[in-house]
Protein backbone atom coordinates (compact mmCIF):
# COMPACT_ATOMS: atom_id res chain seq x y z
CA UNK A 1 0.00 0.00 0.00
CA UNK A 2 1.20 3.47 -0.84
CA UNK A 3 1.97 5.10 2.49
CA UNK A 4 2.12 8.59 0.98
CA UNK A 5 -1.64 9.09 1.30
CA UNK A 6 -2.83 6.92 4.16
CA UNK A 7 -6.28 8.07 5.28
CA UNK A 8 -7.22 7.35 8.90
CA UNK A 9 -10.48 7.32 10.78
CA UNK A 10 -10.41 7.33 14.60
CA UNK A 11 -13.29 5.95 16.67
CA UNK A 12 -13.02 6.79 20.37
CA UNK A 13 -15.29 8.56 22.85
CA UNK A 14 -12.55 10.05 25.07
CA UNK A 15 -11.66 13.58 23.99
CA UNK A 16 -8.14 13.76 25.51
CA UNK A 17 -7.26 10.54 23.67
CA UNK A 18 -8.39 12.06 20.37
CA UNK A 19 -6.08 15.02 21.00
CA UNK A 20 -3.23 12.63 21.78
CA UNK A 21 -3.80 10.66 18.56
CA UNK A 22 -4.05 13.84 16.49
CA UNK A 23 -0.78 15.12 17.93
CA UNK A 24 0.99 11.86 17.13
CA UNK A 25 -0.32 11.72 13.59
CA UNK A 26 0.82 15.27 12.95
CA UNK A 27 4.41 14.05 13.26
CA UNK A 28 3.91 11.96 10.10
CA UNK A 29 3.16 13.65 6.79
CA UNK A 30 2.20 10.33 5.19
CA UNK A 31 -0.71 9.83 7.61
CA UNK A 32 -3.85 11.95 7.27
CA UNK A 33 -6.67 12.02 9.80
CA UNK A 34 -9.89 12.31 7.77
CA UNK A 35 -12.36 12.01 10.63
CA UNK A 36 -13.09 10.95 14.17
CA UNK A 37 -16.26 9.61 15.77
CA UNK A 38 -17.29 8.76 19.32
CA UNK A 39 -19.90 6.08 18.70
CA UNK A 40 -19.80 2.53 17.33
CA UNK A 41 -22.60 3.04 14.81
CA UNK A 42 -21.03 6.32 13.69
CA UNK A 43 -17.81 4.41 13.05
CA UNK A 44 -19.64 1.98 10.77
CA UNK A 45 -21.42 4.78 8.90
CA UNK A 46 -18.25 6.84 8.45
CA UNK A 47 -16.28 3.79 7.34
CA UNK A 48 -18.91 3.05 4.70
CA UNK A 49 -18.91 6.63 3.47
CA UNK A 50 -15.22 7.54 3.68
CA UNK A 51 -13.63 4.13 2.96
CA UNK A 52 -10.53 4.96 5.04
CA UNK A 53 -7.31 3.01 4.60
CA UNK A 54 -7.05 2.42 8.34
CA UNK A 55 -9.45 2.70 11.27
CA UNK A 56 -8.16 3.14 14.83
CA UNK A 57 -10.93 1.59 16.87
CA UNK A 58 -11.61 1.60 20.62
CA UNK A 59 -13.39 -1.32 22.30
CA UNK A 60 -15.64 0.54 24.74
CA UNK A 61 -17.77 2.61 22.37
CA UNK A 62 -21.40 3.67 22.98
CA UNK A 63 -24.35 2.19 21.06
CA UNK A 64 -22.37 -0.80 19.80
CA UNK A 65 -18.91 -1.76 21.04
CA UNK A 66 -15.79 -1.68 18.94
CA UNK A 67 -15.76 -5.42 18.25
CA UNK A 68 -19.29 -5.41 16.83
CA UNK A 69 -18.46 -2.23 14.92
CA UNK A 70 -15.43 -3.98 13.41
CA UNK A 71 -17.58 -6.89 12.24
CA UNK A 72 -19.96 -4.50 10.49
CA UNK A 73 -17.13 -2.41 9.05
CA UNK A 74 -15.68 -5.54 7.45
CA UNK A 75 -18.96 -5.86 5.54
CA UNK A 76 -19.39 -2.23 4.42
CA UNK A 77 -15.73 -1.35 3.87
CA UNK A 78 -13.78 -4.61 3.48
CA UNK A 79 -10.61 -2.91 2.23
CA UNK A 80 -10.28 -0.76 5.38
CA UNK A 81 -7.71 -2.16 7.77
CA UNK A 82 -8.51 -2.05 11.49
CA UNK A 83 -6.21 -1.48 14.45
CA UNK A 84 -7.75 -1.73 17.91
CA UNK A 85 -6.60 0.74 20.57
CA UNK A 86 -7.86 -0.11 24.04
CA UNK A 87 -6.84 -0.14 27.69
CA UNK A 88 -8.57 -3.52 28.06
CA UNK A 89 -5.90 -6.16 28.71
CA UNK A 90 -8.14 -9.22 28.70
CA UNK A 91 -6.69 -12.00 26.52
CA UNK A 92 -10.21 -13.12 25.63
CA UNK A 93 -11.20 -9.63 24.51
CA UNK A 94 -8.02 -9.21 22.46
CA UNK A 95 -8.52 -12.58 20.78
CA UNK A 96 -12.14 -11.79 19.96
CA UNK A 97 -11.11 -8.40 18.57
CA UNK A 98 -8.50 -9.98 16.31
CA UNK A 99 -10.97 -12.62 15.11
CA UNK A 100 -12.94 -9.82 13.42
CA UNK A 101 -10.10 -9.59 10.92
CA UNK A 102 -8.40 -6.64 12.59
CA UNK A 103 -4.69 -6.34 12.01
CA UNK A 104 -3.58 -5.41 15.49
CA UNK A 105 -4.32 -4.63 19.12
CA UNK A 106 -2.46 -1.87 20.97
CA UNK A 107 -2.79 -1.14 24.68
CA UNK A 108 -3.38 2.59 25.08
CA UNK A 109 -0.78 2.82 27.84
CA UNK A 110 1.80 1.63 25.31
CA UNK A 111 0.61 3.77 22.42
CA UNK A 112 3.29 6.42 22.91
CA UNK A 113 5.94 4.03 21.63
CA UNK A 114 3.85 1.41 19.82
CA UNK A 115 1.19 3.23 17.81
CA UNK A 116 3.29 4.26 14.83
CA UNK A 117 5.05 0.86 14.53
CA UNK A 118 1.64 -0.80 14.83
CA UNK A 119 0.20 1.36 12.05
CA UNK A 120 3.14 0.48 9.82
CA UNK A 121 2.80 -3.24 10.52
CA UNK A 122 -0.96 -3.36 9.92
CA UNK A 123 -0.71 -1.37 6.69
CA UNK A 124 1.93 -3.83 5.50
CA UNK A 125 -0.37 -6.74 6.23
CA UNK A 126 1.42 -7.92 9.37
CA UNK A 127 -0.25 -8.53 12.72
CA UNK A 128 0.74 -6.33 15.66
CA UNK A 129 0.09 -7.10 19.32
CA UNK A 130 1.17 -4.84 22.20
CA UNK A 131 4.30 -6.12 23.93
CA UNK A 132 2.79 -5.90 27.41
CA UNK A 133 -0.27 -7.86 26.31
CA UNK A 134 1.93 -10.44 24.61
CA UNK A 135 4.03 -10.95 27.70
CA UNK A 136 1.25 -10.96 30.25
CA UNK A 137 -1.34 -13.05 28.44
CA UNK A 138 -0.12 -14.75 25.32
CA UNK A 139 3.38 -15.82 26.33
CA UNK A 140 4.82 -14.25 23.19
CA UNK A 141 8.44 -13.14 23.53
CA UNK A 142 8.97 -9.55 22.37
CA UNK A 143 11.74 -7.02 22.72
CA UNK A 144 9.85 -5.44 25.61
CA UNK A 145 9.38 -8.69 27.51
CA UNK A 146 11.37 -8.87 30.70
CA UNK A 147 9.89 -11.49 33.01
CA UNK A 148 6.95 -13.74 33.60
CA UNK A 149 3.98 -12.17 35.37
CA UNK A 150 4.60 -11.69 39.10
CA UNK A 151 1.92 -10.96 41.67
CA UNK A 152 2.08 -7.28 42.40
CA UNK A 153 2.31 -5.61 45.81
CA UNK A 154 1.18 -2.11 46.69
CA UNK A 155 2.33 -1.39 50.20
CA UNK A 156 2.07 1.73 52.30
CA UNK A 157 4.11 2.82 55.30
CA UNK A 158 3.31 5.67 57.68
CA UNK A 159 6.37 7.40 59.08
CA UNK A 160 6.73 9.78 62.02
CA UNK A 161 8.93 12.33 60.25
CA UNK A 162 11.12 13.05 57.22
CA UNK A 163 14.14 11.29 58.67
CA UNK A 164 12.31 8.01 59.23
CA UNK A 165 10.68 8.24 55.80
CA UNK A 166 14.04 8.66 54.08
CA UNK A 167 15.49 5.81 56.14
CA UNK A 168 12.54 3.63 55.16
CA UNK A 169 12.93 4.41 51.47
CA UNK A 170 16.67 3.78 51.64
CA UNK A 171 16.10 0.39 53.24
CA UNK A 172 13.62 -0.62 50.53
CA UNK A 173 15.88 0.56 47.72
CA UNK A 174 18.97 -1.15 49.11
CA UNK A 175 17.09 -4.42 49.54
CA UNK A 176 15.68 -4.22 46.01
CA UNK A 177 19.06 -3.52 44.42
CA UNK A 178 20.67 -6.35 46.38
CA UNK A 179 18.10 -8.76 44.89
CA UNK A 180 18.83 -7.53 41.37
CA UNK A 181 15.59 -5.61 40.99
CA UNK A 182 15.19 -2.28 39.26
CA UNK A 183 13.84 0.59 41.36
CA UNK A 184 11.88 3.63 40.22
CA UNK A 185 12.15 6.34 42.86
CA UNK A 186 9.61 9.19 42.72
CA UNK A 187 10.22 11.63 45.56
CA UNK A 188 10.26 15.35 46.27
CA UNK A 189 13.41 17.36 45.79
CA UNK A 190 14.11 17.70 49.52
CA UNK A 191 13.69 13.98 50.15
CA UNK A 192 15.72 13.09 47.08
CA UNK A 193 18.83 14.90 48.27
CA UNK A 194 18.58 13.32 51.72
CA UNK A 195 17.89 9.91 50.22
CA UNK A 196 20.90 10.01 47.92
CA UNK A 197 23.09 11.04 50.84
CA UNK A 198 21.72 8.19 52.94
CA UNK A 199 22.28 5.62 50.17
CA UNK A 200 25.82 6.85 49.68
CA UNK A 201 26.52 6.64 53.40
CA UNK A 202 25.23 3.06 53.37
CA UNK A 203 27.73 2.10 50.67
CA UNK A 204 25.56 2.30 47.55
CA UNK A 205 27.41 3.61 44.51
CA UNK A 206 24.52 5.84 43.51
CA UNK A 207 26.06 7.27 40.32
CA UNK A 208 26.96 3.81 38.98
CA UNK A 209 23.54 2.43 39.91
CA UNK A 210 21.78 5.21 38.01
CA UNK A 211 24.16 4.96 35.04
CA UNK A 212 23.54 1.24 34.53
CA UNK A 213 19.78 1.80 34.76
CA UNK A 214 19.16 -0.06 38.00
CA UNK A 215 17.68 3.03 39.63
CA UNK A 216 15.45 5.59 37.92
CA UNK A 217 14.96 8.91 39.70
CA UNK A 218 11.85 11.03 39.06
CA UNK A 219 10.51 14.16 40.72
CA UNK A 220 7.22 13.72 42.58
CA UNK A 221 5.98 17.26 41.87
CA UNK A 222 6.70 16.98 38.13
CA UNK A 223 5.07 13.55 38.03
CA UNK A 224 2.01 14.86 39.84
CA UNK A 225 1.62 17.63 37.27
CA UNK A 226 1.94 15.16 34.38
CA UNK A 227 -0.67 12.79 35.80
CA UNK A 228 -3.37 15.30 36.65
CA UNK A 229 -5.89 17.47 34.86
CA UNK A 230 -7.47 20.27 36.90
CA UNK A 231 -5.66 18.90 39.99
CA UNK A 232 -7.27 15.46 39.71
CA UNK A 233 -5.62 12.29 38.38
CA UNK A 234 -6.52 11.66 34.76
CA UNK A 235 -7.06 7.97 34.00
CA UNK A 236 -5.65 8.20 30.49
CA UNK A 237 -2.56 10.18 31.50
CA UNK A 238 -1.93 7.79 34.39
CA UNK A 239 -2.34 4.66 32.30
CA UNK A 240 -0.17 5.99 29.50
CA UNK A 241 2.63 7.58 31.52
CA UNK A 242 2.88 5.07 34.38
CA UNK A 243 2.71 2.14 32.00
CA UNK A 244 5.36 3.69 29.77
CA UNK A 245 7.75 4.39 32.64
CA UNK A 246 7.37 0.85 33.99
CA UNK A 247 7.89 -0.81 30.61
CA UNK A 248 10.90 1.34 29.79
CA UNK A 249 12.41 0.59 33.18
CA UNK A 250 11.65 -3.11 32.81
CA UNK A 251 14.06 -3.36 29.91
CA UNK A 252 16.85 -2.71 32.43
CA UNK A 253 15.93 -5.77 34.52
CA UNK A 254 18.54 -8.40 33.79
CA UNK A 255 18.02 -11.18 36.32
CA UNK A 256 15.48 -13.81 35.25
CA UNK A 257 13.22 -13.57 38.30
CA UNK A 258 13.81 -9.91 39.08
CA UNK A 259 11.08 -7.30 38.97
CA UNK A 260 10.42 -3.57 38.86
CA UNK A 261 9.88 -1.90 42.22
CA UNK A 262 8.81 1.65 43.00
CA UNK A 263 9.29 3.92 45.99
CA UNK A 264 7.15 6.97 45.63
CA UNK A 265 5.28 9.84 47.15
CA UNK A 266 3.14 11.37 44.40
CA UNK A 267 -0.13 10.70 46.24
CA UNK A 268 1.41 11.72 49.59
CA UNK A 269 2.50 14.99 47.96
CA UNK A 270 -1.06 15.58 46.77
CA UNK A 271 -2.37 14.85 50.24
CA UNK A 272 0.14 17.24 51.79
CA UNK A 273 -1.24 19.95 49.51
CA UNK A 274 -4.75 19.26 50.82
CA UNK A 275 -6.00 17.29 47.82
CA UNK A 276 -7.47 14.30 49.66
CA UNK A 277 -9.70 12.97 46.89
CA UNK A 278 -6.92 13.35 44.34
CA UNK A 279 -4.53 11.36 46.51
CA UNK A 280 -7.04 8.55 47.08
CA UNK A 281 -7.94 8.39 43.42
CA UNK A 282 -4.29 8.30 42.37
CA UNK A 283 -3.56 5.45 44.78
CA UNK A 284 -6.45 3.53 43.22
CA UNK A 285 -5.30 4.19 39.65
CA UNK A 286 -1.70 3.36 40.55
CA UNK A 287 -2.80 0.01 41.95
CA UNK A 288 -4.96 -0.80 38.93
CA UNK A 289 -2.18 0.04 36.47
CA UNK A 290 0.89 -1.43 38.20
CA UNK A 291 -0.73 -4.76 39.03
CA UNK A 292 -0.86 -5.44 35.30
CA UNK A 293 2.93 -5.36 35.25
CA UNK A 294 3.66 -7.24 38.50
CA UNK A 295 5.20 -4.13 40.07
CA UNK A 296 5.99 -3.97 43.78
CA UNK A 297 5.23 -0.46 45.08
CA UNK A 298 6.13 1.17 48.39
CA UNK A 299 4.31 4.42 49.26
CA UNK A 300 5.45 6.55 52.16
CA UNK A 301 3.37 9.02 54.15
CA UNK A 302 4.42 11.22 57.06
CA UNK A 303 1.61 10.80 59.57
CA UNK A 304 0.63 12.35 62.89
CA UNK A 305 0.76 9.70 65.62
CA UNK A 306 -2.45 11.15 67.13
CA UNK A 307 -4.71 11.82 64.14
CA UNK A 308 -7.99 13.72 64.27
CA UNK A 309 -11.27 12.02 63.47
CA UNK A 310 -11.16 13.37 59.91
CA UNK A 311 -7.57 12.28 59.29
CA UNK A 312 -8.35 8.86 60.78
CA UNK A 313 -10.98 8.39 58.07
CA UNK A 314 -8.46 9.44 55.44
CA UNK A 315 -5.99 6.98 56.95
CA UNK A 316 -8.51 4.16 56.58
CA UNK A 317 -9.25 5.07 52.97
CA UNK A 318 -5.57 5.14 52.09
CA UNK A 319 -4.99 1.78 53.74
CA UNK A 320 -7.90 0.32 51.76
CA UNK A 321 -6.09 1.10 48.49
CA UNK A 322 -3.03 -0.95 49.47
CA UNK A 323 -2.24 -4.64 49.81
CA UNK A 324 -0.25 -4.18 53.02
CA UNK A 325 0.14 -1.48 55.68
CA UNK A 326 3.30 -0.81 57.73
CA UNK A 327 3.69 1.55 60.68
CA UNK A 328 7.42 1.53 61.53
CA UNK A 329 8.46 2.17 65.13
Task: Describe the protein in words.
There is one protein chain. The chain is α/β, with parallel strands linked by helices and 329 residues long. It folds into two domains: 6-138, Response regulator (Rossmann fold, 3-Layer(aba) Sandwich), CATH 3.40.50; 153-326, P-loop containing nucleotide triphosphate hydrolases (Rossmann fold, 3-Layer(aba) Sandwich). Helix content is 48%, strand content 20%. It has 14 helices and 14 strands. The protein has helices at 15-25, 40-50, 66-76, 91-99, 111-123, 131-138, 162-178, 189-201, 206-211, 220-227, 235-250, 266-272, 276-290, 309-320; strands spanning 6-11, 31-37, 54-57, 81-86, 104-107, 128-129, 153-159, 182-187, 215-219, 228-229, 232-233, 260-264, 296-302, 324-326. The strands form three sheets. It has a six-stranded parallel sheet, with helices on both faces. It has a six-stranded parallel sheet with strand order 9-8-12-13-7-14. A two-stranded antiparallel sheet has the order 10-11. Strand 5 (104-107), helix 5 (111-123) and strand 6 (128-129) form a beta-alpha-beta unit. Helix 7 (162-178) packs across helix 8, helix 11 (235-250) packs across helix 13 and helix 12 (266-272) runs antiparallel to helix 13. The longest helix has 17 residues, at 162-178. It starts with 5 loop residues before the first strand and ends with a strand.
Amino acid sequence: MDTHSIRLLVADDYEPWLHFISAMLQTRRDLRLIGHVSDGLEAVREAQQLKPDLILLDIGLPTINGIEAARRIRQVSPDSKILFLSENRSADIAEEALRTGAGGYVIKSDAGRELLPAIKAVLEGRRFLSASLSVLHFGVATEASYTAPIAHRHEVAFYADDISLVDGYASCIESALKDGNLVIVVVTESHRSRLLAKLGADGVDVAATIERGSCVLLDAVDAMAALTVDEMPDSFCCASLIGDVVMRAAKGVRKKHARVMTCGEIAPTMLAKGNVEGAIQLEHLWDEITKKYGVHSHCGYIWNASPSKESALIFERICAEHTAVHIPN
